[in-house]
Design brief:
Layout (H helix, E strand, L loop, with lengths): L1 H15 L17 E2 L5 H4 L28 E15 L4 E17 L4 E22 L5 E25 L2 E22 L5 E24 L5 E9 L2 E15 L5 E17 L2 E10 L3 E10 L3 E3 L9 E3 L2 E10 L14 E15 L9 E15 L6 E12 L7 E15 L9
Antiparallel strand pairs: 1-4, 2-3, 2-19, 3-4, 4-5, 5-6, 6-7, 7-8, 7-9, 8-11, 9-10, 10-13, 11-12, 12-15, 14-16, 15-16, 16-17, 17-18, 18-19
């Protein structure tokens, strides 16, 4: 067991020290970037449901109360590939990235409790945009390059326990940390030096979420699942640096005259987020569920994230519907009967409002719609699985100076099960 712990800790250290570029969306420019999906591949393949779902063999990152159901030590590692086609009505550009989307581990504690810990991206920034201005003679007079990278990561520790038969509660502590760099380089025609505006932000803070799950029988074969998770109100602190200086693009952007060099502090305040779930199903056979999440608007205070005049935040909401089906998970004659088939759909109002025309009055909501499906492939004759997931969707729309992003996401995860603590048998 000591060797297993050493291997897991080594993986965590190596991942924490490895910086990834895990976004290619123009909308990651705003705030601390795109909020990453915090669900497992199994969950995202079902439209990202999971608040009410518990499983003996798999981790559920939507609700720590589900940890009370774990019966095996579970390792979970996932990779995600994102591909985006952005169009503004006249042109279409493509971008893509591949990254490690989470590394997590769950350990059962006795018969009715469990513990989990892990690391996953919390938000991501990754874009590279060019804006050109032409005169009446269609000659280029000004060009601006927008670039950003970085994001925040989340280290978490969760605990779940069954309070009485069918009813479980759970709590999870999270530490958010990361750095974000944004810059704009502007070059005018017939001007030898360009100007560059650069911001560097260091972000950190603690968050806490808790939830419950209730499971009871509707009849001999079908169970009713209820669940809720609450991300408590929290504040992420930011330490910001702003620079404006001139550069010579011909000499590799060597800084020349510094016009602005300031440091400041701020915070990003997040109201409580509530997620509710309901589902019905038969253990290890099938499940169909619905999740609904909602949250008041984010509130950036005293930081450079509050300087963006072309965005504002509104209320967030998300509805997901999905489920799975396994023909016969104990089959010894047919491999495909032990395969789990998953599908789902989501509609998400991100809360981000963008003024694409720049008149500071016409803000448009950026919504996200996606359809997903996937399979869980058993590994050998064990309870471990190789999970494949696909998601197709779109975000934003071609209207009022905005862009529409059509995306295809491919996800792969390994869910490995082992029994660490075995009761000694005496014959």
């Amino acid at each position: 067991m000591i060797k297993k712990i050493i291997v897991v800790l080594t993986l965590f250290v190596s991942i924490i020290s490895f910086a990834q570029k895990n976004n290619a969306s123009a909308y990651s420019f705003f705030g601390i970037g795109d909020k990453n999906n915090t669900n497992t591949v199994e969950q995202t393949s079902m439209g990202s449901i999971g608040v009410s779902l518990s499983d003996e063999f798999r981790l559920n990152l939507s609700n720590p109360a589900s940890l009370s159901s774990l019966k095996f030590t579970t390792y979970s590692l996932a990779i995600e590939n994102k591909n985006i086609w952005a169009k503004d009505g006249t042109d279409t550009q493509q971008g893509g990235t591949t990254y490690l989307s989470y590394l997590a581990m769950g350990v059962p504690l006795g018969e009715n409790a469990g513990l989990s810990f892990g690391l996953l991206p919390n938000s991501s920034v990754g874009y590279s945009l060019i804006s050109s201005i032409y005169d009446a003679n269609n000659e280029l007079t000004e060009i601006s390059a927008y670039n950003g990278e970085g994001g925040t990561n989340k280290v978490f520790l969760g605990f779940g326990i069954q309070v009485f038969k069918g009813f479980s509660v759970g709590f999870q502590g999270n530490y958010i940390f990361g750095k974000i760099e944004n810059n704009i380089t502007n070059q005018l025609k017939d001007v030898s030096l360009a100007s560059k505006y650069e911001t560097l932000s260091s972000i950190k803070g603690f968050t806490l979420n808790g939830g419950f799950q209730y499971k009871t029988k509707l009849n001999k074969n079908v169970n009713l699942h209820l669940g809720a998770n609450f991300d408590l109100e929290n504040e992420l602190n930011t330490e910001d640096e702003e620079y404006i200086y001139s550069v010579s693009l011909a000499s590799g952007e060597i800084p020349r005259d510094t016009i602005l060099n300031t440091k400041s502090e701020g915070m990003l305040k997040s109201p409580i987020k509530t997620s509710l779930g309901v589902g019905v199903g038969k253990d290890n056979k099938w499940f169909a569920g619905l999740d609904y999440s909602f949250q008041d608007a984010l509130d950036p205070q005293g930081s450079i994230f509050n300087n963006y005049t072309r965005i504002k935040y509104n209320k967030y909401s998300k509805i997901s519907i999905g489920g799975f089906y396994t023909p016969k998970y104990t089959s010894i004659t047919s491999y495909w009967e032990r395969v789990t088939y998953r599908a789902g759909v989501k509609l998400e109002k991100t809360g981000l409002m963008v003024d694409g025309l720049g008149n500071n009055s016409d803000f448009t909501a950026i919504d996200d719609f996606g359809i997903s499906f996937g399979v869980g492939l058993p590994v050998s004759n064990q309870l471990s699985n190789l999970n494949l997931g696909f998601e197709f969707g779109k975000r934003g729309k071609i209207d009022k100076g905005l862009v529409q992003e059509n995306y295809i996401n491919f996800r792969l995860s390994f869910s490995l099960n082992d029994k660490w603590f075995k009761k000694r048998e005496i014959f």
